[in-house]
């Protein structure tokens, strides 16, 4: 259903999507991954979801 309607789930809720699905929905994700370390060098805003799903 998510992909059928091009929907984006709220990441603060249950979010059963894969890194590949997120890549499809957010074409600028590679740029986000690139600049994240500049703005959060100590990983203060990282968590399990960010590490595993966004692969940052």
Uncertain regions spanning at least 5 consecutive residues: none
What is the number of domains? 1
Mean pLDDT: 84
Rg, Cα atoms, Å: 12 Å
Order of helices and strands: HHH
Counting H and I runs of at least 4 residues, what is the number of helices?
3
Number of strands: 0
Report the sheet-strand fraction: under 5%
Helix content: 40-55%
Shape: globular
Give the biggest beta sheet.
none
The span between the termini is 26 Å
Alpha-beta classification: mainly alpha
State the gist of this model:
The chain has 56 residues and is mostly helical. It has helices at 19-25, 29-39, 48-54.
What does this structure look like?
The chain is mainly α. The protein has one domain (1-56). It is built from three helices and no strands. The protein has helices spanning 19-25, 29-39, 48-54. The model has no long low-confidence stretch (mean pLDDT 84).
Kindly list the characteristics that best describe this protein.
single chain; 56 residues; mainly alpha
Task: Outline the fold blueprint.
Blueprint: H1 19-25, H2 29-39, H3 48-54
């Amino acid at each position: 259903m998510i992909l059928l309607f091009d929907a984006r789930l709220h990441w603060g809720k249950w979010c059963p999507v894969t890194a590949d699905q997120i890549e499809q929905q957010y074409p600028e994700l590679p740029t986000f991954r690139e600049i994240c370390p500049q703005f959060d060098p100590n990983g203060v805003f990282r968590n399990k979801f960010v590490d595993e799903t966004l692969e940052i």
